[in-house]
Each structure stands twice: as C-alpha cells, then as structure tokens.
C-alpha cells in the first residue's frame, strides 16, 4: 500500500533526519512552489519522471537551475538519444503512487517504486549552489501541499533511510559516447527492471476491460515475477494471440520456473526415453501404431506417469512452502541471528 | 429396442404427469425417470455447447478436447464464447469450482467436475479457486461444525489427487477463509438480492434458518476476482469461468444478475449433465447408498461386484433376444459410464456398434468397464495416498500467487 505524507514524515523522523515542514496550497510547478515558500528560495528541487523505451522508469531530481537535456541523458543511460521520454501521467500515480505534481525523490519509499532509478543532481552537493552554512533544498513529502526543507546531507541520509543508496550525477555533462567510451550511466539503468505497471498491455498481460458501472480497475500492487509471466505469455502466443513483442519474454527465456514445473512435457520425454530403451530404439508414435504396445496400456502408462510426477511436484511445492513459512518464523524469532 | 423396466422401479400411470425437478438440493426426473436436458436448457435459459465451440476450444488450446466435451457431457454454457474471445486477446481468466463436503465418501460423479476442471486448467494454463462449502453443509445438514471442517480437509485430498497445479490453485474452506475482501463481496451481493428473489430461485420459506437464506451470496462471491487479493490484487477485470453440474445454475443466474450492479463482470459457466447412478438415469447418485455408485475408496473386487450386480443393463433379457435386438444404449449404464471414462474415441465407437447390434454381450461390456474403472480408481487412490497434510496446507495457504 502507498505511503502517506504522515508515514514518510514519521519514517524520516524515526531515522533521525532533521528537516523543516512547510504547508502551502497545492503547487503543480516549481515556480508555484518557490512562490509558496517563505523567502522564495531558489533551492527548490525540480523532479522529472522519465520512462525509457525498455519501460524502465527514472526520477531525476535536480536544482531548478540545472539544465537537463533528456536526449543527452537518454544516450548516457544506454538507450540512445530518443530512447527516453517524460513518463505518461498515469504512471505517476500507478508506479510512484503519488498524485500528479508531487513527484519527489522520497517516492522511492513506496514498494511499488522499487524498480524506479533515482538520479540526484550532483550540484545539490555543490556549495556554490547550496550554501554550506545551513543551506537547504526543498522536496515534497509525497504530496504537493507540503514541502520539506533539508540540507543536502540530510537529503542523502533520508534517501538511505528509505533503503536506497543516493546516486549523484552531473546532469549537465554531455560526454562523448562511442566504441571506446560506453554510456556512463548505463550501469544504473541495467540493474533495474521495468515496474510492472509501466509495462505496455501485451500478450498475457491485463487489458482493462471497461465494466459498465465500474471505476477503472485498481492496479495490482505486487510485482509479478518474470517467470510466472513468461509461461502464460508463451501459451497465449501459441494460440496466435500476439499483440506485438512481449518485452518480458526474451528469446533466451526458454527455461523458467513455470516451464520447469510443467508435467506434460516431462511425461513426453520420459515416454520417449522409455520406448527407445525398452523397444530397441523405437519412437513413441511407432510403439502403438506398430502394435508392439497396446494403445490402452500406453494411455494407462501415460496417466500413471502424469499422476506420479504431479504428486512429486506437489510434495516439492509443499516442502518449499513449509521452508518458506519456517524462514519467516525463524526471522521473526531471530533464531539464527 | 428392448424396453426393459428399470430394476426395482415401478412406473405408475400418475408418474407420467410428473415434472422433472432440478435444483441445487434435489434432482428428480420426469415421467420416465429420465432428465430431459433440452427442456432443462430451455427452462434455465443457458446455451447449448455446440460442436463448433468444441472445435474452437481445440484450436485455441492446441490439443484434443477432453472426452467430456467431445461427447456432450459438458453440454451447456453461459458466455463461454466470451471467455474464449478473452483468451485469444490475452485477457486473463480464472476457473472457479467447488464441493459441499458432506461426507468422506466421494464417488465418481463427484470427481467428474474436478477431472474436467483439471483439463481446463492444463489446457488454458489458468489459475483456479476451489471452494469447500463446509458452512453450507452445517446449515443444511446440521453437520457438526468441526466435523465439517475436518471433512473439508479430507475432501481436499481427493480433489488434490485429481492433479491440480499447486502453484495456480487455491483451495479454501468457507469456515477458514470467509472474511476480509471475500466477506466484503458477500455483503455487496447480499445487498442486491431480496428475500423474494431467493425464495423464487431456491424455494426458501419463512421456516428456513437465516443462514440458508443468506448463503447463496457465499457461493456467488468467488466469481469475483477481488475476493482473492493474494491472487488477483484488487483487479476486477479478470473473467471467471465456472465448471459445474447443471443443477448449480440457479446460484450463478443470481450471481450474473448481481454482477453488473456491483461493478463486476458476469461469470461464465460450463455445465455438465448428471453422472448416472448405477441403477439407471433417474437422478443423482447418493453418497449414503453404497450400491448406487462407485466410490473412490472401492477395492477392485467391490468395483467388479457393483458393476456386475447393480449396473443397470440395457441388454436383452436373454442372450437370444440380445443377439437379435441388440442393446438399448439409451438406458445402458455401463455404456454411459464408458462414455465418461474411455479416452479412445475409436474404441468407444467400436464398443457402441458391437454392443448396440448385439454382437457384444452385457458381460463383455461390463468387463471392459470394470478394467477402465479399476485402473482409474486405483490410480486415484495412489495419488491420494501421496497427499500429505503439508500438501493440503500448501494448497490452502493464503500465499502470494502471482498467477497472471
């Protein structure tokens, strides 16, 4: 579930971060936010929410004066200069779980934003821009009716308290990128995956079907693991339901958790191997068609194998479940600490 | 064709005017004791499951249709073509079926919907929820509540033995699971259905206890995916397909009526005929009459005995008559059972010809059936023996199941 403004403020306080709180009417732009704050400070941070062509998402937090060229940034992230754009508005609410106009680096606190990369402007740490003597920067605590004022050090500590290592980047740099000079921010992009809600509607994925009296379907909060998605996506592809390439199913993803647990293909393999071994190299189809094996006996053997493998699979699943439960209980009891 | 009187049955003149009665708690045939399925279809207003729908299922799933589908045992539906449209477009759906755990003694008739549901799960690769209505049995049969809960778990073992996929199947008992999102949907449904309506649909009276009157909402609720946040989050766009016997139709007519009023999709249905009792097609099998059915605990010799002694035969009264006139396949129970359980279409067709023409004798067709049933039941018993309490716990755990 998404954190509220009070949740995030409490979290930061608990972590010993010091900050001041300013309430104001809702502000949708940096300019409005500056005007709403006492002293009209120029250290209000601007936030861009970006999505690249691989559906990975980024929050870029910078001083208002820092010039950000999205094309340059995109190339540095390794997706080419037209590979990144401002994320569509609905992703602000569905991925970051904040209302429009409230994008903030603190949004990484929401579990749904676990896959969002946070890039902080290195100038925030530069004393030329933010005074070393108690100079503060301003960020929203998940809502645009409040701003928190923190020193750059406190901001970095806050990000750490939310479970992320803050990454400061020279956002105005425009390094040459070629064979010998790989994109410098690519490693930051490559460690992450697309947040599920940022993925396009594709094979096997939800397509919001409008129900007459219903509101839009609520987004699923839990990220779906790649493996579980791959199998239905592949099955539906077999059914010729392709809607363009599904980014989650790569050519290399032949072996997934779901595919390993499928019983029927294993039964086929076993029967083939058995026929080959026991009938002197005969193929499975030949065994019954040639009359060497009675069709009913073969069908019964197949059913038997399916039953045994399914029982084994269930027993293994149950054992895994018990182990998983045990891990949680042991953790709560600090048994192995 | 020989018209033999059903053993132990008397067809009286008055009975010719007898109407068939089908509701979730009792099933009885019309004048000749038989169920007129076409009349039922009309009366209930569901659609016939046509051959082209079966072909479409085969094409979409890339495998032969289950014998129950090919042979018209699952013969009726509501909105199945919509589900198939969804499947084609990649819109997810899930399966929902259930059992009222009234006794430990399951018979083959009980297994039929589960066998079919397993095929659907495998063919479409979809999640499944299975409801054990232990509360219903406590309300209707006055079953001791703790006994009902125990029976839920015991029945779950037989259900699991049918071969469901643990990673995509959630089995739950009402007594353990009702609450939270599920209960909230029960209330939403209950708000939309009046006392008059349930009286009209289910025949409740002023003397029925209030649990019975409110219960239909409990069986309706699992049609809505947001009852299962651990499987579907808060999604309301996931469709539901319910395989069940045709006598459950009233519950889901009510559910389909309520669905749009509470912002949900209507569940689709795929419905089966009744599995005939050993003594003939005059209604449902009864768990309390051991000779009315083949039970999953029966030994090979019990199976042999029951088929030989009690399976109603459409064969001739004498060998000569049989050779001359052939068998009445319309009433012959071994023939009907083979239609359920022989997978090989060609073999079934051959038996039909040979027996129908009188070349094959009753004893021979019964022998064929005994072999098939013995294999089936023995495999089921061995599978069930491997279902431990941990396996049941795993199927019933409210664990994250990212299935779509």
What labels describe this entry?
heterodimer, A: 337 residues, alpha/beta, YbaK protein, 8 strands, 36% helix, B: 404 residues, seven-stranded mixed β-sheet, two-stranded antiparallel ribbon, disordered N terminus
Textual characterization of the structure:
The complex is a heterodimer of chains A (337) and B (404). In chain A, the strands form two sheets. Chain A has a five-stranded mixed beta sheet, with helices on one face. Chain A has a three-stranded antiparallel beta sheet with strand order 1-7-6. The radius of gyration of chain A is 27 Å and the shape is elongated. The longest helix of chain A is centred in the C-terminal third of the chain and has 39 residues, at 295-333. Chain A has 337 residues and is α/β, with parallel strands linked by helices. In chain A, a hairpin with a 6-residue loop joins strand 6 and strand 7. The two termini of chain A are 29 Å apart. Chain A is built from eleven helices and eight strands. In chain A, helix 9 (263-278) packs across helix 11. Chain A folds into two domains: 5-198, YbaK/aminoacyl-tRNA synthetase-associated domain (YbaK protein, Alpha-Beta Complex), CATH 3.90.960; 246-332, no CATH class. Chain B has 404 residues and is α/β, with parallel strands linked by helices. Helices cover 48% and strands 10% of the residues of chain B. Chain B contains 20 helices and nine strands. Chain B has helices spanning 37-44, 51-61, 67-70, 80-89, 108-124, 134-141, 145-160, 174-177, 180-191, 195-202, 210-214, 216-220, 229-232, 249-258, 300-310, 319-325, 333-341, 345-357, 362-385, 389-396, and strands at 21-23, 26-28, 47-48, 74-78, 93-99, 128-132, 169-173, 239-245, 268-272. In chain B, the strands form two sheets. Chain B has a seven-stranded mixed beta sheet with strand order 3-4-9-8-5-6-7, sandwiched between helices. Chain B is globular, with a radius of gyration of 21 Å.
